[in-house]
Fold this sequence. Notes:
Residues 18-56 form the Essential protein Yae1 N-terminal domain. InterPro entries: Essential_protein_Yae1_N, LTO1_adapter. This is ORAV1 protein. Belongs to the LTO1 family. The chain is mostly helical. It has one domain (4-116). Helices cover 74% and strands 6% of the residues. The protein has helices at residues 2-8, 10-65, 71-87, 98-115; strands spanning 121-124, 129-132. The chain has a two-stranded antiparallel ribbon with strand order 1-2. Strand 1 and strand 2 form a beta hairpin. The longest helix is centred in the N-terminal third of the chain and has 56 residues, at 10-65. The termini are far apart.
Amino acid sequence: ADLFDGIVMAEQRFHGEGYQEGLAEGSHAGMDEGRRHGALHGARVGSEIGCYLGFALTWHCLLQKCTDPKNSKKLRALDSLIGMIQKFPYEDPTYDKLQEDLEKIRGKFKQVCSMLNIQSDFRLGHERSSLTF
């Protein structure tokens, strides 16, 4: 009777072993894919934010040298953009409002570009990011 039980139960045993092996392998592959995706997405966000910060700091420096009284409003908007970027939580990938804050920064950037009469287009390509005017 034990010999037949081994034969009859073999399919169920092999099914269970195959499931466990597949689960372990899939979990490992999923973690690797998740790390790659996270690193790529993080690099894109960092590149975008870095571009905005460089843009804002450059324009802030240029406008400070001008004596035009209309620049004070532009400088305040640039200060606001710079402050938002400096408060952005780069080190916390679990920050629950990351996307919301990123959208606010993008909106402020567009507002600043409008105030400066600059048409902006931020694109992420495979080789590099670019900001065109």
